[in-house]
Design goal:
By secondary structure, the chain is an alpha/beta fold. Bound molecules: ligand MGD (2 copies), iron/sulfur cluster and molybdenum atom.
C-alpha cells in the first residue's frame, strides 16, 4: 500500500458553492479528488460534473495543454509545434511590441473571465493587461452587467449582498431568476433545502428548486418588471408598504407610486401569465417578512434585463426588507465586502490612461475589422463556445493577420484558432484564495500536485509576459505569496495562509453580517434611489417602469439557454464521462407546442432564426411553459456533429443597460429536421 497524504483545497469555479475539496496524494502524484466532509457548504460531496472532471480530464496529461505551442500550419488546421517558454514569449513580445508601435495598444483586444475565479488566477493577469493598455472586452457584458448597473442605480451597490447565514431569521426566501438546483447545487440542497423559511421561486421553468418551493410563479420570459409592479400594487393597496422606511431611506417613491394604480393583479396576470391569486399571495408573504431576495443572473439576460432588475430590486425598499436580521437582497457578494482591495489585485494603477472597452456583443464585429483589431489575448475564457454570433466570431478569429495568444488548461475551440497557445496550471497545481460570491467566507486553494509538463499558473505566465515585454513596474513581478498574504491580512481574519489551508474555509466573522445595517446606501444621496439622476445621466429612464416583452410572433418560440448541470459554463464537455452524461444536444419543448409542430419526443428538430440554425433532439417536457424552449449552454462547438452550439443562434442583441447580453431574449422557429 503506497503512502498517501491528503491536501485540503477549494473549488474555484464560477459557482455559488465554493466547495471544499480533499485531494488524495500518493507517491506518483494526485490519486483522487474528493469532497471535504468538514466543509460547511458541500459537506463531503462535490457536484457530479466536478467529481467526474476533477478525477478525469483534469488529471489526464494527455487531455491537457502541457507545453507552449506555436502555429506552424494554416489557422484552424491544428498544425502546431512545441516551443520553449522563452521562444514562445519572444514571439509574443516581438509581435505585440510591433503592434503597439504601429497601431497603439488599443488594437490589441483582451478577453478574459472566470475560467478560474480564484483571486489571483482571475485578477493578477490584469496587471499585465493594464500596463499593456489593451482594449478590454468587458467580461461582465457576457454575463451579468445589466444587473450590476441596475442595482448600482437603485441601491448604490450590486456586490454587497445579504449574508446567507441570516436566513435563520427569515420567514420567506424569494428566489427570482436563479436556478440553484443547477447553478448552486449545494446551496440548493442545504441552504435552501433545510431552511425553515418558505421558499418562493420566480422562473419561467419548473426547475428543481421551483418544484420544491412553497410557491412557484412562472412568468413569461422578459416580463419580470410587470410582475414586480403587480406585486408592488398589492403591497401598497393592502397597506403592506413600509412607509417609514420609504420616507427615511429612499428618494423618488412619490414619483413611482402613481404608476402602481394600473398594475393590478389582473393586469399582472395578463402581462406575465402568472395567475392573479399567486401574485397576491407572493406579494403578501414577501411583504410580511422578514424576507430575503435572491436576484439571479438568468432574469437580467433579457432585452430589458436592466429595467427588470431595477423593478424587482424595488421590493426590499417598498417593504423595508433590508437592514435587519433575515432581510436583504443578494446578486453577488464581491471580495471587497471581506475587506480585500480588488483594485490592488488587478493593478488598476498600472493603466497609463483610461483603457478603452467594448462589449462582448461587439467582439465579432471588431475582429472582422483588421484596422481596429490586430491582436487578441484570450485567457480564462472560451469565446468560441460562449460568445454570441458564433459563426461570425469564429470566422473572424480565423483571420490570418490577427495575432492571437490563448492561455488555457485544455485545448479548446478558442485555442484552436490561436497563433500561440500557452499552457496553464489547473487549480490543483497552485496556491490561491477563493472568496465565494454567495457566502461571506474565505477559503484556501492549495497546491496539491505539480502541473503537467511546462504548464504554469496564470500569475507566473503574466510575470513572464511582462518580462518579455521589458516592463519594469514592480507590481508586475510581485510573488503570489506576497499578494495572498496582503489580501489575507486585509480580511482581518488574523490567519496566515498555512493556518487557513489547514482548515480550508473560514466564515467571515462569527455572526451574520447585516446588509446595510446603518441605513446608509452607497448612492450619491445616501438613500435608495428609486428615481435616479445617475440613470438619467446615462440615458436611462429616471424611474423603473412596468414592462413585459411582447410575445414572439409568427409561431416563434423564446429560447432559454441557462446553466447545465453537466458543465460549468464551457468546462467539462471534454471529459469522456461527462460527455457520456451530456449525451446529444437537446431542446425541451412543451408537449402542446410540440404537437402543433408534429414533433415527437426523441425526434430530431431544427432551431432556426436569422442568425443561424442548429439541429438537436426534442425532449417533450411540461417543465417549460408554452411558447418557450430550453437548451442548456456549455457544449463545445468542435465536439458537436454540426460544429456549433446554441450560441450559433445568439445574435448578440444587447440588453437595455451596459450593452450586456440579452441571450435569453433569442427567438427561434422549431421544425422537424
Ligand atoms: N452547473 C452550472 N453551474 C453554474 C454555471 C454553469 O454553467 N453550470 N454557470 C455559472 C455562471 S457563469 C453563472 S452567471 C451562474 C448563473 O446562475 P443563475 O443565477 O442561476 O442563472 P442562470 O442559470 O443563467 O438562469 C437561472 C434561471 O433564470 C431563468 N430565466 C431566464 N429568463 C428569465 C426571465 O426572463 N425571468 C425570470 N424570472 N427568470 C428567467 C432560467 O429559466 C433559469 O432557470 O451560474 C454559475 N453556476
Ligand atoms: N447561450 C448562452 N451563452 C452564454 C451564457 C448563457 O446563459 N447562454 N452564459 C454566459 C455567461 S453567464 C458566462 S459567465 C460566459 C462564460 O463563458 P466562458 O468564460 O467562456 O466559460 P468557461 O467555460 O468558464 O471558460 C473558461 C475557460 O477557462 C479555462 N480555465 C479554467 N481554469 C483556468 C486557469 O486556471 N487558467 C486559464 N488560463 N484558463 C483556465 C477553461 O478550461 C475554459 O476553457 O458564457 C456566457 N455565454
Ligand atoms: S463547480 Fe460548484 S458545485 Fe461543483 S465542486 Fe465546484 S463549487 Fe462545488
Ligand atoms: Mo456568468
Amino acid at each position: 500500500m503506497p503512502e498517501r497524504s491528503v491536501v485540503r483545497t477549494t473549488c474555484p469555479r464560477d459557482c455559488y458553492d465554493a466547495c471544499g475539496i480533499l485531494v488524495i496524494r500518493d507517491p506518483e502524484g494526485i490519486h483522487a479528488v474528493r469532497g471535504d466532509p468538514d466543509h460547511p457548504i458541500s459537506r463531503g460531496k462535490l457536484c457530479r460534473k466536478c467529481t467526474l472532471g476533477y478525477n478525469g480530464v483534469f488529471l489526464d496529461p494527455s487531455a491537457r495543454l502541457t507545453e507552449p505551442l506555436l502555429r506552424d500550419g494554416p489557422k484552424g488546421s491544428g498544425g502546431y509545434r512545441e516551443a520553449s517558454w522563452d521562444e514562445a514569449l519572444a514571439v509574443i513580445a516581438e509581435r505585440l511590441t510591433a503592434i503597439v508601435e504601429d497601431s497603439g495598444p488599443e488594437a490589441i483586444l483582451n478577453t478574459h473571465y472566470t475560467g478560474t475565479f480564484a483571486l489571483l488566477g482571475y485578477g493578477y493577469g490584469l496587471r499585465f493587461v493594464n500596463r499593456l493598455g489593451a482594449t478590454e472586452v468587458d467580461p461582465d457584458s457576457v454575463c451579468n452587467l445589466a444587473g450590476h448597473l441596475a442595482l448600482g442605480y437603485l441601491w448604490g451597490a450590486s456586490e454587497d449582498g445579504f449574508d446567507p447565514r441570516t436566513a435563520r431569521d427569515a420567514k420567506t426566501i424569494l428566489v427570482w431568476g436563479a436556478n440553484p438546483s443547477v447553478s448552486a447545487p449545494h446551496q440548493d440542497e442545504h441552504w435552501l433545502g433545510e431552511t425553515t423559511a418558505d421558499v418562493i421561486v420566480v422562473d419561467p421553468i419548473a426547475t428543481g428548486t421551483a418544484k420544491r418551493a412553497a410557491l412557484h410563479l412562472q412568468p413569461y420570459p422578459g416580463s419580470d418588471s410587470a410582475l414586480a409592479f403587480a406585486m408592488l400594487h398589492v403591497i401598497t393597496a393592502e397597506g403592506l408598504a413600509d412607509r417609514e422606511f420609504l420616507a427615511a431611506h429612499t428618494v423618488g417613491w412619490d414619483e413611482l407610486e402613481p404608476t402602481l394604480a394600473a398594475c393590478t393583479p389582473a393586469w399582472g396576470e395578463a402581462q406575465t401569465g402568472v395567475p392573479a391569486a399567486l401574485i397576491e399571495e407572493a406579494a403578501r408573504r414577501y411583504a410580511s417578512g422578514p424576507s430575503l431576495l435572491w436576484l439571479g443572473q438568468g432574469m437580467q439576460r433579457q432585452p430589458r434585463g436592466g429595467n427588470a432588475m431595477r423593478s424587482v430590486g424595488l421590493l426590499p425598499a417598498a417593504t423595508g426588507n433590508v437592514g435587519r436580521p433575515g432581510t436583504g437582497f443578494l446578486y453577488l457578494n464581491g471580495s471587497d465586502n471581506r475587506g480585500v482591495d480588488a483594485g490592488a489585485i488587478v493593478g488598476s494603477s498600472l493603466a497609463r490612461s483610461e483603457r478603452p472597452s467594448i462589449s462582448h456583443m461587439d467582439l465579432a464585429g471588431r475582429l472582422e475589422d483588421p484596422a481596429r483589431s490586430r491582436a487578441l489575448l484570450t485567457w480564462n475564457i472560451n469565446v468560441a463556445a460562449s460568445n454570441p454570433q458564433q459563426r461570425r466570431l469564429r470566422a473572424a478569429m480565423a483571420r490570418d493577420d490577427l495575432f492571437t495568444v490563448a492561455i488555457d488548461v485544455f485545448p479548446t475551440d478558442t485555442t484552436a484558432l490561436a497563433d500561440v497557445i500557452l499552457p496553464a496550471a489547473s487549480f490543483l497545481e497552485c496556491d490561491d484564495l477563493v472568496l465565494s460570491y454567495f457566502d461571506l467566507s474565505v477559503s484556501a486553494q492549495v497546491k496539491a500536485g505539480d502541473p503537467p509538463g511546462g504548464a504554469l499558473p496564470n500569475p507566473e505566465i503574466f510575470r513572464r509576459l511582462a518580462a518579455a515585454m521589458g516592463y519594469d513596474e514592480p507590481e508586475l513581478y510581485e510573488p503570489d505569496r506576497t499578494v495572498i498574504d496582503r489580501a489575507l491580512s486585509e480580511t482581518g481574519l488574523g490567519l496566515t495562509f498555512d493556518e487557513l489551508a489547514a482548515v480550508g474555509t473560514v466564515p467571515y466573522g462569527a455572526e451574520p453580517v447585516i446588509q446595510f445595517a446603518d441605513g446608509v446606501f452607497p448612492t450619491p444621496s445616501g438613500k435608495v434611489e428609486i428615481a435616479s439622476a445617475a440613470a438619467e445621466a446615462d440615458g436611462q429612464p429616471r424611474l423603473p417602469y412596468p414592462h413585459a416583452d411582447p410575445r414572439p410572433e409568427g409561431g416563434a418560440l423564446r429560447l432559454l439557454t441557462p446553466a447545465s448541470r453537466w458543465s460549468l459554463n464551457d468546462m467539462f464537455a471534454n471529459d469522456r464521462k461527462v460527455a457520456g452524461r451530456l449525451g446529444e444536444a437537446w431542446v425541451a419543448i412543451h408537449p402542446l407546442d410540440a404537437a402543433e409542430r408534429g414533433v415527437e419526443d426523441g425526434k430530431r428538430v431544427v432551431l432556426a432564426n436569422r442568425e443561424g440554425t442548429l439541429e438537436l433532439v426534442a425532449r417533450l417536457s411540461d417543465e417549460v411553459p408554452r411558447g418557450v424552449v430550453l437548451s442548456p449552454k456549455g457544449r463545445w462547438p468542435g465536439r458537436e456533429p454540426t460544429g456549433a452550439n446554441v450560441n450559433v443562434l445568439n445574435d448578440g442583441a444587447k440588453a437595455d443597460m451596459g450593452e450586456a447580453t440579452a441571450v435569453h431574449g433569442v427567438e427561434v422557429q422549431l421544425t422537424i429536421a
